[in-house]
Amino acid sequence: MKTESSIVQVAMSREGVIGRRGFLRSIGLGATALAAGGVLPVSFTDLITLRADELRKQRLSCILLWMNGGPSQLETFDPKPGTEHGGATKAIATAAPGISIAESWGKTAKVMNDVALIRSMTNKEGNHQRANYQLHTGYVPTATLKHPHIGCAAASEIGDGKFDLPHIVSIGGATTGAGFLGAAFEPFVVANAQRTPDNTQPKVPDGRFKRRLGLLNHLEKAGFEQAGGADRVRDHRALYAQSARMVLSPQMKAFNLEEESPVIRESYGKTPFGQGCLLARRLVESGVTFVEVRMNGWDTHQQNNERIATLAGQVDPGFATLVTDLKQRGMLDNTLVVWMGEFGRTPKINGNAGRDHFPRVFNVALAGGGVKGGQVIGASSPDGSEVKDRPVTVPDLMASFCQALKVDAAKENMTAIGRPIKIVDGGKPVAELFG
User: Fold this and answer.
1) By its UniProt entry, which PROSITE patterns does this protein fall under (predicted)?
2) Fold of 59-196+256-434
3) Cβ pair 367, 96 in contact under 8 A
């Protein structure tokens, strides 16, 4: 019975904190609502279906490199050497003329022609939990509603419903969930990129496994469904079916990094983050819509310079090789790569040689997905304390993600109680990114 236990574990991890009823509500929500009862003309419904099908054929995807804790802009992509607040960090030239970045990012400097930097991100949330939520969803947290991760929202629009693997995968730890979109779009968490996810390897032949699922359905029908639990049984079966399809899928080989050459694995960096970036490439190559690769440790209240140098030593090769690898495989145009955290750090260095929370000015790096590389958008003031030029808000950034993925940011999804919520509330795409 080990295989059945495996399916239970996969189903539970995919269900997350969403109730089982939410699982079925999220399947086919948009199409069902539009076509039900002939509310819309068939021709209009067909147009929407064709539009969605066309987007799925384009295999658009996004890889988010999440720097958990809030990376300092002055030690990453907006250094200010020789100034009072610049600290000891030196700047280095990049492949893009006129653009310099912090010295610990030598490999990223070499791919800067494919990377765009936004140095004028600005926000108000300086609390980790609140800012983390907002930079993943585009919304500030509330007590009454759980908004979906932007990746979950994108997957609900352009993900193929017949695809065997999860639409959104989080590597290196859990991320923000699918919220009111339901368990069908809940992120699948991979704790360690260097081994196959737990409970996903069948221990018995496929035929025997399928017979066990059939027996489970029979037992549920005889013992629970007929006793008044039809709704719960239906939701439970749908969840099991989705998880079983994943476990039995030949696409599961995407999680096996042993298929990659030693040279490729070494180029990404033999670290959890570097191998996570390699896994992200394999997953989007197989058809996954959104992958988040998480790197902890950026809350540098003490010894900021030393800690960021160590962190950059792991992130720099992963980021740079990911961009290069995607480009060489002809995938960069259809894959948006985003490097960011929840906020930046204070220009003024504190008494512990660290930097504190600072949402007023921070930076984001983007590549692929139609983004024009080799440019800097916006600027911070000489002392790094405020935005000097071209402020970019969180909704602006989220709207830009949607444009890259060809998702309608203004589309409204319905919550369980019939409340319409836009994918992104306000904001305009940063036009310069796609110039």
Assistant:
1) TAT (PS51318)
2) Alkaline Phosphatase, subunit A (3.40.720)
3) no
